[in-house]
């Protein structure tokens, strides 16, 4: 319940639902070194992805993904939503901590209060535990979040009889991703993730900029929440978003 209400407060879109995976954990996560897996990708030719902007549709599923993820080895950048400087990140985490405590201590009130304002940040109320000025500061900081680099990455894309196989050298993000073009199902490290819907570009995607693609949603959110693959409008680059890892992989 707390996570759901925080979603309303943090409604700034990285990709799919409007929020990253528990913003309050970003600082702790960023201190951890990304776990890497030794995968030999050095012998494959680097193949550029197609940067021509295309719109995803139900009838061009395979075509869209084949253009976004061409066969070969690609360099990529692991990113997260955050701030370029520690001062803003620390202040944001401080405000998030106060909000989280206030919501946790008065769950019933916030369930009722948030029901009045569906799919939007909550208007100010003193029960949030912040002054109105602090709450406006929090909202301003929230809207300043951008994708910041965490690490470099390599992925190897191969065509299969069923669709695509994507292997990465960072198992902390994902090790192997399989996409079946027939039933649109995805498998991430042996976890099946059913196809959910088309992701439409939106001006609310403040952190990433507008992008569109496809969303897969797990039946077991404790294992894996949502995965999305698409194309960023401004750069034409391919983006792979893993909600459980709270990371977006930008493919060069």
Describe this structure in words.
This protein is 25% helix and 28% strand. The chain starts with a helix and ends with a strand. The protein is of the alpha+beta class and 252 residues long. The longest helix is centred in the middle third of the chain and has 20 residues. A hairpin with an 8-residue loop joins strand 8 and strand 9. The N terminus is likely disordered. Helix 4 crosses helix 6. It is built from 6 helices and 11 strands. Strands 6-5-4-3-2-1-11-10-9-8-7 form an 11-stranded antiparallel sheet, with helices on one face.
Kindly summarize this structure in a few lines.
The protein is an alpha+beta fold and 252 residues long. The chain has helices spanning 2-9, 26-30, 61-68, 86-105, 107-115, 132-144; strands at residues 72-82, 146-159, 163-168, 176-180, 186-188, 191-193, 195-199, 211-217, 226-232, 238-242, 247-251.
Looking at this protein, list some descriptive labels.
elongated; eleven-stranded antiparallel sheet; 25% helix; 11 strands; 252 residues; alpha+beta
Low-confidence stretches: 1-8, 11-35
Which structural class is indicated by helix and strand composition? Answer: alpha+beta
* Outline type: elongated
SS elements, strand count? 11
**Helix run count:** 6
Q: What percentage of amino acids are in beta strands?
A: 25-35%
First-residue to last-residue Cα separation = 38 Å
Strand order of the largest sheet: 6-5-4-3-2-1-11-10-9-8-7
Give helix % range.
Answer: 25-40%
